[in-house]
Amino acid sequence: MRSYLLSMLQRTFKDANADAFVSRYANDWLVWEPGAWKPPGRSTLVPGEGTPAPVKGEALALALVERSDRPQLTLGRGSECDAPINDGTLSQIHLVFMRTERGTWTVRDANSRNGTKVGEKKLEPGQPLELRDGDTIHAAQVTFTFCSPQRLFERLGEGAR
After folding, report:
1. Do strands 72-76 and 83-84 pair parallel, antiparallel, or not at all (unpaired)?
2. CA proximity to 45, closest of 55, 57, 37, 35
3. DSSP 3-state assignment of 6?
4. Could you give the domains of the chain?
5. Pairwise CA distance, residues 43 & 38, whole Å
6. DSSP tally for the chain: helices H, then strands E
7. Of 16, 35, 32, nearest in space to 24 by CA
8. Beta-bridge mates of residue 99
9. How does DSSP classify residue 80?
10. Assign residue 134 a region: left if phi > 0, alpha if psi is -120 to 50, beta otherwise?
């Protein structure tokens, strides 16, 4: 899965119109929202005296593009995932994304340890939910926003102000 820092996309498309952005990046997006990072597993990093406070980082846009060799994209802590995210609250494979026949995306919790919510709705493991533009996905303590190309372009403009 290709990923882009939002600040890089803002600089690249600061003078562009939506049509130019959408024609180059017509895919849907998953935006990894900044938040506190959690070390995976049994880390030697223990919060306490002398440990720096978590710093809020920058959002990262992940391009949702179907794979030709299999019908799904995976996200989780494991290196075998299409989108490996090294956060200790995520399971090895936490989420599975699939494209429907209508061209929309679904997400399902892959029987994760810490669960997933879309908005305020808790996902039952293995049960897919169709995503809508702007949906917020809370996978354990990691937050994502599902965006159409148009919504992502609008967000780029908001960040430039």
Report:
1. parallel
2. 37
3. helix
4. 3-41+54-160 (2.60.200.20)
5. 9
6. 3, 12
7. 16
8. 105
9. T
10. left
